[in-house]
Amino acid sequence: MSTIAANLQAVEATIGAACTSAGRARNEVQLLAVSKTFPAEAVVEAMAAGQRAFGENYLQEALDKMQEVARLQPATPVEWHFIGPIQSNKTRPIAAHFDWVHTVERLKIAQRLSEQRPPELGPLDICLQVNISGEASKSGAGEDELPELARQVAALPNLRLRGLMAIPERANDEAQQRAAFARLRALFDALRAQGMALDTLSMGMSGDLGAAIAEGATIVRVGSAIFGARNYE
């Protein structure tokens, strides 16, 4: 068994245990393997172990990697998620090459993604990023502006608003971790109560995925625990 395959098995066990502890079925939580900074060969190794969804932060690196993965594994379907900051001049290639975008925080970006999504690809799945801890250094919409932003984004053609994403302030205490995720879940539930057909909470990484799963995460984002330490972030 390869190192990446063994790491995926260990992460899978951690997610499975967290689901059992939370009284949830394992198939309620998707593992998103964060492959930023790692080569196409690492993605292909993870694919060989059964992983199909990969998260990328850096656009040009991701586009090059997608091309190489398609060359190495042309017959294997892959789901690509963009999870990095989005600049206006990068929306066209994001709209054309990704299946999901987790980091929409402004209407202008959503409008550009909608306008630039090739119609033959079908709707682009979208999560709105929320600055759940109110940190000045963090990206994301504020809690107060979220309902209106969600309403506007849900109305755009060529996009499908699926849910919310957040990266809370780092905390080692599980109660603090759960409190932040519970706030995001409450915002999610409030939008659903208003009639929005949301089904996705993208929250939780290696250090807090247990707390995230306990509070309802449907996608957890794990990178170094699968691929190893990064040379840069």
Task: Kindly describe this structure.
Keywords: Pyridoxal phosphate. Helices cover 42% and strands 16% of the residues. The protein is an alpha/beta fold and 233 residues long. It has a single domain (3-227), classed as Alanine racemase (TIM Barrel, Alpha-Beta Barrel), CATH 3.20.20. Strands 7-6-5-4-3-2-1-8 form an eight-stranded parallel sheet. α2 packs across α3 (59-72) and α4 packs across α5. It starts with a helix and ends in a 6-residue tail after the last helix. The model has no long low-confidence stretch (mean pLDDT 95).
**How is the main sheet built?**
8 strands, parallel
For the largest beta sheet, what order do the strands appear in spatially? 7-6-5-4-3-2-1-8
End-to-end Cα distance, whole Å, is 28 Å
Instruction: Calculate the mean pLDDT score and round it.
Output: 95
Helical segment count? 9
List low-confidence stretches. none
Question: What is the second-level CATH architecture?
Answer: Alpha-Beta Barrel
Identify the CATH class: Alpha Beta
Radius of gyration: 17 Å
Shape: globular
Helix content: 40-55%
Query: How many discrete domains?
Result: 1
The third-level CATH topology is TIM Barrel
Class of secondary structure makeup: alpha/beta
Oligomer: single chain
Topology, number of strands: 8
Beta-strand fraction estimate:
15-25%
Give the SSE order as H and E letters: HEHEHEHEHEHEHEHEH
